[in-house]
Amino acid sequence: MSSFGAEVTWQRDGANFADRRYSRGHLWRFDGGVEVPASSSPHVVPLPYSVAENVDPEEAYVAALSSCHMLFFLDFASRRKIVVDSYVDAATGVMEKQDGKTVITRVELYPKVTYAAAAPTAEVEAELHHAAHEACFLANSVKTEISIKLD
């Protein structure tokens, strides 16, 4: 079994908390020492109470799912001696009402992979993506529909 953690820190900094006019800006700190400025999304809490340039939980959720998929894809490609030069994914998440709750109903991955030599067939690339999706710890942990959109 493994355990993972993050420290999330927020401070009021003198704002009048009771009137809901306080900054949602906060900090994520990870065990390796990386600090990430975070905030609520401006789509959820209007400016200036959100910090638009900070990462919001919804973006992080999409990025985490994309990252997990990519890491497994790269692993499976390397096992098959398929050399990947770059992998870029402009992933998107869609938030909607479902059963009276606001949820991210789906995440769409749009991976663009370049290879050192000839690219594998579309069938082999699809197999790699399928295997990555099946193996991804995060994809296996959520109800969100996750789809991979290949050319």
Automatic annotation (TrEMBL):
Pfam family name, one: OsmC
SUPFAM superfamilies: OsmC-like (SSF82784)
Annotated InterPro entries: KH_dom-like_a/b (IPR015946), OsmC/Ohr_fam (IPR003718), OsmC/Ohrsf (IPR036102), OsmC_Ohr_Peroxiredoxin (IPR052707)
Top-rank lineage group of the source organism: Bacteria
Protein name (database record): Peroxiredoxin
Species the sequence originates in: Thalassospira xiamenensis
